[in-house]
Amino acid sequence: HEALMEAQGFASRPGPKPKIDQVVSEKIYEAIKACRFIKVLYASHSEKSPRLRRLAPYGILTGIRRYLVARTDVLPEGPERLFRIDRFHSVELTDDVFGRDPEFSLKRFSNRAFGVYQRDDEFSEVVWKFAPDVAEEALAFEFHPDQKVRTDSDGSVIISFCASGFLEMCWHLYCWGDKVEVLEPQ
């Protein structure tokens, strides 16, 4: 409903966001629907100059930034990688098709992370304890789609889930100040 309301002009997401070229978005959308490879001129954060990559696009993660979830032709069997769409210098839709892995689920992929970033060595149980005076606010928040919630006898709220992305968790927890305690991971 939120996407539909936004498309109709009844909802808007405030705040900073990267500029995404509409033509780039349309080509990516077409490639995802048709299972067609795209050629992109892309520069990762560690590269000074963009280089040509051939990608099999699987889906898009949205948020403050937009990321294309794709497999490369170098590693066609996976793993899926993330590419920041605002770093695409050009996109060419090819005529070459790929077979989407029937075992892949964008939802399952995105649920492995707290935000966007995923690292297998960080994937673990996460447990946060929110102070009683922010318990109501914490209960009104979905930190992760698979979270479990428990209210302790002192009124504090314990939120737990499994995910990776410790840096993004730290960025988020900063806004709770001393009202949250990280019980796990260490």
**Share of helix among residues?**
10-25%
Largest sheet: 5 strands, antiparallel
Number of helical segments? 5
**What is the first-to-last residue Cα distance?**
39 Å
Q: Which stretches of 5+ consecutive residues score pLDDT under 50?
A: none
On the 0 to 100 scale, the average pLDDT is: 91
| Lateral strand order in the biggest sheet | 4-3-2-1-5
DSSP E strands, number: 9
Strand content: 25-35%
Order of helices and strands: HHEEEEEHEHEEHE
- Structural class per helix/strand content? alpha+beta
Question: What can you tell me about this protein's structure?
Answer:
By secondary structure, this protein is α+β, with helices and mostly antiparallel strands. The chain has helices at residues 2-7, 22-34, 106-111, 135-139, 166-174; strands at 36-42, 51-61, 67-72, 81-84, 88-97, 124-130, 148-151, 157-163, 180-184. A hairpin with a 5-residue loop joins strand 7 (148-151) and strand 8. It is elongated, with a radius of gyration of 19 Å. The termini are far apart. The model has no long low-confidence stretch (mean pLDDT 91).
Task: Write a concise keyword list for the protein shown above.
186 residues, five-stranded antiparallel sheet, four-stranded antiparallel sheet, 5 helices
Give me a quick take on this structure.
With 186 residues, this protein is of the alpha+beta class.
